[in-house]
Specification:
Layout: H1 3-41, H2 46-146, E1 149-153, E2 161-163, E3 170-171, E4 176-181, E5 185-186, E6 191-193, E7 198-209, E8 216-222, E9 225-232, E10 238-249, E11 254-259, E12 265-267, E13 274-282
Antiparallel strand pairs: 1-4, 1-13, 2-12, 3-11, 5-6, 6-11, 7-10, 7-13, 8-9, 8-11
Helix pairs in contact: 1-2
Length: 284
Amino acid sequence: MTMKSVVSLLVLLHCCLSGAQVHRDRDGVSVNEIQQVDYEDRESRGNDIQADKQRAEAAASTHSQQTCQPDIHTVLREMSNMMAEQRVELSHTKTELGAMEARLRDSESRLTASESRLTASESQVEELKVQLKSKVEELTKRNEDRKVAFSASLAAPGQHGDTGPFNTGITLVYRNIYSNIGNAYNPTTGIFTAPVRGLYLFRFYIYGGGDNSVPTTAALHKNGHQIAIAHAHQASGGINSSNGVSVLLEVGDVVYMHLWAGRKIYDDGNRHSTFSGHLLFTMY
């Protein structure tokens, strides 16, 4: 039942009660007129008329009650049914409201979980950014480490002549630097130090003047051990020789040129005697 139906039923009940009251009033007027006529005509019939009046009022009251009472009961039954329906509808509304509250709580829980996952994802993203930055820095360093190359000639700018012979072997110091990428070659000591593990290529050229008694000989050393030599010997004229190797070096290994005892090597502004090396590729 709707509120409009409730109002209609209440109006019907009011009308029913009002009709009963009006009917009672009309019956009362008829009795009064009869009483007035009877008193004027026959005063002696007063007692009978009074009795008739009482009987007429009782009959009118009975008729009104018989007419209105079933309508009142009907209205009350309908109101009772309506209230029952309203209680049922209220119960359903409460049930639906409870379900909506449960869905809302579930949505809030899912939202909280989503926010937690989002926060965790953001933390992972930040961690990945840090890792990526570290990786980029590492790769950049490796890339810089791969850039290893040098080339130099023996005589310093403006100098020329023989180096040697000496009673003992010495490390040759190539002082005229063409390139020294990565600064792995030390022009003060003449020693190359490997900055990364990898395969390196070294080449060296020697030059000298012909001499029956003093040959020209120089050797490539790794960590104090000879691994390759260049040798030339003739009585006169210019002599030269060269060699080259690819060698695996660990970090910190040293490579240099060694002049044998009792030998000599020549250089001048023409840069006859040179020593070069570079990293072919790293090995991790």
